[in-house]
Design goal:
The protein is mainly α. It has a domain at about 20-25 and about 35-70 and about 95-140: Orthogonal Bundle (Ribosomal Protein S7). Helix content is about 55%, strand content about 10%. The protein is built from six helices and two strands. A hairpin with a 2-residue loop joins β1 and β2 (about 80-90). The longest helix is centred in the N-terminal third of the chain and has 19 residues, at about 35-55. The two termini are about 20 Å apart. The relative contact order is 0.14. The mean pLDDT is about 90.
């Protein structure tokens, strides 16, 4: 077991928007260490959003991410031989991680020709509060609401 919690390493901001959050997103999007490919996919998706909606693609991505991020989640906890789903507030850092994971995973499952097409479609849907990632957030919130009777077990 480690003596101290590992330090958070600062992320370098991305070259186009100068935002470390974009770098974090691209790192999650990346496969097999192909960071330049991941950047290309992200920037293409942002450009496609800007072309199709006549709005700023980067701002739409940030809005979509804010719409997707869950506020609460359920955590399993074993108490007296029974397992309870206990609703828990999510740390801000984890909220971002979970939101990004959902956006990327549901983009990958979407139908479309390229990953940039899929990602842009999912971002546009999430901005309008629809799509699979928004459905997952709503399901998570619904589950937490259904199990709020067990919130007194929270640690």
């Amino acid at each position: 077991m480690r003596k101290q919690r590992a330090k958070k390493r600062p992320l370098a901001p991305d070259p186009r928007f100068n935002d470390p959050l974009v770098t974090r997103f691209v790192n999650m999007l990346m496969w097999d260490g192909k960071k330049s490919v991941a950047y290309t996919i992200f920037y293409d998706a942002v450009d496609k959003i800007a072309d199709s909606t006549k709005e700023e693609g980067y701002e739409m991505w940030k809005k979509a991410l804010n719409n997707i991020m869950p506020a609460v989640e359920v955590r399993s906890r074993r108490i007296g031989g029974a397992t309870f789903q206990i609703p828990t507030e999510i740390r801000p850092d984890r909220r971002i991680s979970v939101g990004m994971k959902w956006l990327i995973n549901f983009s990958r499952k979407r139908s479309g020709k390229t990953m940039a097409d899929k990602l842009s479609a999912e971002i546009i849907a999430a901005t309008k509060n629809e799509g699979a990632s928004i459905k997952r957030r709503d399901d998570t919130h619904r589950m937490a609401e259904a199990n709020k009777a067990f919130s007194h077990f929270r640690v």
